[in-house]
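call fold(seq) -> tokens
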Amino acid sequence: MKVIICGAGQVGWQIARHLSGERNDVTVVDSNADLVRRATDALDVQGIAGFASYPDVLERAGAKDADMIIAATHSDEVNMVTCQVAHSVFSIPRKIARLRAKSYLTAIYSDLYRRDHMPIDVVISPEMEVAEAAMQRLAAPAAFDTEKFLGGKASLLGLTIDEDCPIVNTPLNQLTDLFSTLRVIVVGIRREGTLFAPESGDQIFPGDACYVMAHEEDVRRTLEVFGKTHRKQERVVIIGGGNVGLMVARQLEERTTRVRVKVIERNRKIAERAAEALEKTIVLNGDGMDVALLAEANIERADAVLCVTDDDKTNMLAAVRAKSEGCPMAIALINDPTLEPLMETLGIDAYINPRSVTVSSILRHFRHGRVRAVYSIGDAEAEVIEAEVLSTSPMAGRKMRDIDFPEGVLVGMIRKGDKVVRPTGSTVIEEGDQIVLFTLTGDVPEVERLLQVSIDFF
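ret:
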């Protein structure tokens, strides 16, 4: 597939890395020649320095025969115009735009993106995606990573294994015997920095970071089996009152079960805007690392602190300070992936990587077949893919044990009609089933072959 990526920043670079690694024909466009050079030097991509919305620049990038364009520059307006030019001048069939401004995302204006107006097929909002990720982290405070699949009926949980975990040193194939009714599968293990898909005879050791797929009804029991306690989130402190912090506070206000929320924002104007927009939330103007201000926010009585300012180091230090003042759970927004290994050392319970969240959203619309969701794990090390099994798929009509899955691929959960089931070797995968697979990045092309490219992708 021929893809043009406009914007060579963190998101654009990561998407280019994913797609070029899967042998797609990728061209990167950016007005910053240094960023273009960085992409072409490090990745197997072509690069064009110029403004992405200019027709002549897109023509040089190969827009005449491109299958998809992803507009992910720092400007919403450039991204919108780029999609318009891609449609009107070059008839590119698939157009994805990243938009940040809230006004462009309001539902009442959704007609703006119709083909006869502003022809954008998919709109990605980083702030909305990150806010949703934050809500999921708060919903599963014992997990360092979490994502929902199959319409919310299955959950991916990232769990760090402690010394007192009840199933330490237990072969995975024995978990079924010990907990016969528990609908859960360990799909990935990170050990000493290496992520792999475990075999049935592998064991779990202290210090492992496990990715497990659990039926939504079994999440609480799964946490107990893995030595985690489920804590209610009744008091939450949010440090950072910008777009993400505001969205999370609004969603917490709308919950049926009451959550007491306090927002700390350093910028007075932003704090005033947040105070006007929120009805039940207390907004404090000041530094989120100020001990006196944290005390005023009753940080020692909070169940969780969410640090979502626009500065990684501020988020990390604020999370550490809140923990030192007695808050049991700290979540930090981290843009720089090189800082992620420090999270455990600093005692930060979970982190959200906006780049990874946005990349996951974009990949969902790129993957072949009837792909419904894609979640990127780590630094592009693995993906969890939810897809519908087509009649043309090599999997259709076969038992799990008879399908030749690559070593780095595991099936986590299957939805048959209204029923979500834990897969076994005798489970028959049928046309129309929705399947969730964990796959190491190197095995993604083989997974796409199993899902079978369908003409209805376009």
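DSSP finds 15 helices and 24 strands in the chain.
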